[in-house]
Design a protein that fits this description.
Helix content: 25-40%
CATH topology of the largest domain: TIM Barrel
Shape: globular
Distance between the termini: 28 Å
Number of helices: 24
CATH class of the largest domain: Alpha Beta
Oligomer: single chain
Radius of gyration: 28 Å
CATH architecture of the largest domain: Alpha-Beta Barrel
Structural class: alpha/beta
Largest sheet: 10 strands, mixed
Strand order of the largest sheet: 16-15-14-17-13-12-36-18-27-35
Strand content: 15-25%
CATH superfamily of the largest domain: Alanine racemase
Length: 757
């Protein structure tokens, strides 16, 4: 859609005489592509405020803004348009509803818990095959923000539209229904996702059904392909259009690549709009030290559409995204070689087979590589070719599950309470960098690491948000200050050293976090040190207290509430004494994951989310008040199968003695990878083809053996050590330990794969 600023102003009930043309609506400053024709909505949330980014966007060329107020720093600016409204989100939704009113076409609205995106993409691909002009939600833009942004893409020649609608709280669906105004309503499979936001499952279903009210056709079910076929029927199209169309993969994976490269592998629908979304994801991972490369195949497009027009659009996307090199792999894209920008290094190959045969991996060095092509066209082979040499075992990390867990805990907080996200110990073993990027995008108040080196690694990888260093005992003050890392201080000796070094570097009011010992009895200031602490802080202007905090010893112990309450009382006294001695305010925080769930009245200014972020509750099931998603899955593969008679011994020391004729699988993962030796000899069961398979004999350094007699296993089958089907809590119970230890014990040599759904 294209509108002028004065048209938009009239729709929003404000005045403007500007004829500036608007093509793009923006709510996230990091996604800026074409500033001259962009309208930025300064949205305010519980953890962020879009008004903070107005000045930066103006500096980058944006000249149109929807705001609650004009930021002071922008006063006097006379070459920008500011549309001042009561609520920028409502303004965005009003604009989306207007755009929908300009077209009289079939509109499919899809809701449900699972399958919305798959159904949408099946129908979209079928309609393109039929030559229809279709607009649909990019990926899964189905929120209060995503829906109006999706509807904005409607054009006057659009023939059919397909939009998703997702909710997580009561009262949200009516807003989305008024924007989408579906003529065909669809409800897919309903499960427990987002149950926590509703009184019960029934109330959630009732809220979702609001989308279906007034629809001429309503379609429900849990079979994605059947639902897609029914939608085609309702649109008057042939169900046969689905023949040959596979369900899309909704995963977007991040892998380590050869020669210190980083790969993004995207098998989502291979069309121009989806490429734009992938390029946006890629932009969040750019660093100055890596060249930006795209390996792109032939794209899906409307039957009969001019392919040169398609690839001109692609060329413009790549240019605006700052891509340095394009490797085009496919006959169609190669036939349009002349439309690509000569400023980008471009190479053309007519097939994946030719790429695999001719392209040497040594030609990639420290690059950020996006690989995108049609599913089934072999681009997964390119991805595997460019992966760094890896262990056969992998740790898969679901970044969407991280987001869902973060939001589930945030829903327990007061709007003004900040969230400190714990990514120490390499993100509890999952890998800190991708988690940090995800949490930065979600609006966490702080990241917390254990040591300076962890913080430096995040800064070097492009993390800009505040980082708290909890155990900063070090002589490397140069790194601490150079990378703007905020240290926790727990002793007068450490504080004096920090003050001296900060003075030497010429710093003023450098943020520090004061730790009090309220009962953990590890480290921290105690009562009789507070006067000395205050005197030292008041004697210098080199440091300034950003927060004061403590650590609960027994928040996860249901029988130790009295001790926890005593810690709260001590914390109140200590922070009160500190506050009375200083002439400025500071934040306070003491709750950990268990504390967030059990002590909502003790949130103070911030809370620290640790193990709960990774989908693990520190509390027993009956005391866990929210549903968490599994984040990490450790798996390996079967490399050998042997059938042995009863009484055969297996492994070192002949500890595995078979009680029956058995099929024994060898799996290339052992105690050097984090699979503890105590899991051997049947003490643990791993999952193969949905079957629990006990270990046999001792766990070896690099291998283990499992009994797959009942699993119908084959060489190459995956073996889940822990994950959605093999709870990590069960392994922890076997060792008499906690899930933290299992998760953080996964060896660095295990390949990490990060994905978005």
């Amino acid at each position: 859609m294209k509108l002028t600023v004065d048209n938009i102003a009239r729709l929003l009930g404000v005045s403007s005489s500007s004829g500036r043309e608007i093509v793009t609506l923006l709510t996230d400053s990091r996604s800026l592509c074409e500033p001259e024709t962009t309208l930025f909505f300064a949205l305010r949330t519980s953890v962020n405020d879009g008004h903070r980014y107005v000045a930066d966007l103006y500096r980058r060329g944006v000249r149109a803004f929807v705001v609650e107020r004009v930021p002071d720093i922008m006063s006097g600016v006379d070459d920008a348009d500011f549309l001042v409204v009561a609520d920028p989100l409502e303004a965005l939704q009003t604009l989306g509803a207007y755009v929908r009113s300009t077209v009289d076409i079939p509109v499919v609205g899809i809701t449900g818990s699972r399958g919305k995106t798959i159904v949408k993409e099946l129908v979209y691909a079928a309609l393109l095959k039929a030559g229809r002009r279709v607009v649909r939600s990019p990926r899964s833009w189905n929120s209060q923000i995503g829906v109006p942004l999706s509807v904005w893409n409607l054009e006057f020649d659009t023939e059919i539209a397909i939009f998703e609608a997702g909710i997580d709280h009561p009262g949200q669906m009516q807003v989305l229904r008024d924007i989408i105004r579906p003529t065909i309503g669809v409800m897919t499979y309903i499960n427990g996702e987002h149950d926590a936001g509703f009184i019960d499952r029934e109330s959630k279903v009732e809220e979702k059904r609001r989308l279906l009210s007034g629809c001429g056709v309503v379609i429900e079910g849990d079979d994605n392909r059947r639902i897609a076929a029914d939608i085609l029927d309702a649109l008057g199209e042939s169900r046969d259009l689905l023949d040959g169309i596979d369900e899309v993969s909704t995963r977007l994976d991040v892998h380590d690549g050869v020669n210190d490269s980083l790969m993004i592998f995207d098998e989502f629908t291979a069309d121009a709009p989806s490429l734009l979304s992938a390029l946006d994801f890629m932009s969040r991972r750019k660093t100055a030290s890596r060249r930006n490369t795209v390996i792109l195949g032939d794209l899906l497009h409307r039957d009969g559409e001019d392919i040169r027009t398609v690839y001109r659009e692609v060329a413009a996307m790549l240019r605006l995204a700052g891509i340095d090199r394009l490797i085009a792999v496919g006959k169609e894209i190669s036939a349009c070689a002349d439309v690509f920008d000569p400023l980008i290094a471009v190479e053309f190959m007519d097939s994946v087979d030719r790429f695999l045969a001719e392209y040497d991996v040594s030609r990639f060095d420290r690059e950020l590589i996006l690989i995108k092509g049609k599913r089934g066209a072999g681009f997964d082979s390119i991805m595997r070719r460019l992966e760094s040499p890896r262990h056969q075992s992998i740790l898969e990390v679901n970044l969407d599950a991280v987001v869902d867990n973060f939001n589930s805990f945030r829903a327990l907080l007061k709007p003004q309470t900040g969230m400190v996200a714990m990514v120490k110990a390499s993100g509890y073993g999952t890998g800190a960098l991708e988690l940090a990027k995800t949490l930065q995008a979600q609006g966490a108040a702080y990241l917390a690491v254990a040591v300076i080196e962890e913080g430096v690694a995040l800064r070097r990888a492009g993390i800009t948000m505040p980082i708290m260093v909890l155990n900063p005992v070090s002589t490397n003050y140069q790194a601490l200050f150079s990378y703007n890392l905020e240290p926790a201080v727990f002793s007068l000796r450490e504080l004096r050293m920090l003050v001296n070094e900060a003075s030497r570097f010429g710093l003023e009011k450098y943020p520090v976090h004061i730790k009090f010992d309220t009962g953990m009895h590890r480290v921290g200031f105690i009562d009789d040190e507070i006067d000395s602490l205050v005197r030292l802080l008041k004697s210098t202007d080199t440091v300034k207290v950003a927060s004061a905090f403590s650590h609960l010893a027994t928040a996860d112990c249901l029988d130790e509430d009295a001790y926890t309450e005593s810690q709260f009382e001590a914390f109140d006294c200590m922070t009160g004494a500190l506050a009375s001695g200083l002439d400025y305010p500071f934040k306070r925080h003491i709750l950990n994951t268990a504390g967030i769930m059990r002590y909502p009245d003790r949130q103070y200014d911030m809370v620290r989310l640790g193990i709960g972020l990774y989908g693990i509750s520190p509390l027993p099931p009956e005391a866990t008040c929210i549903s968490l998603r599994t984040v990490a899955k450790l798996s390996s593969t079967i490399i050998s199968l042997k059938r042995w008679p009863a009484e055969t011994t297996v492994g070192y020391s002949r500890r595995g003695v078979l009680a029956r004729e058995s099929v024994i699988a060898t799996v290339p993962i052992g105690y050097a990878d984090g699979v503890d030796r105590h899991f051997g000899c049947g003490n643990a069961r791993f999952v193969v083809n949905g079957c629990l398979c006990p270990t046999v004999g001792n766990i070896c350094m690099d291998l283990c053996m499992i009994d797959v007699t009942d699993a119908g296993a084959s060489i190459g089958d995956r073996v889940e050590i822990f994950g959605p089907d093999a709870p990590i809590e069960s392994l922890a119970a076997t060792l008499g330990t906690i899930p933290y230890e299992i998760l953080t014990s996964v060896s660095p040599r295990i390949h990490r794969i990060y994905f978005r759904e």
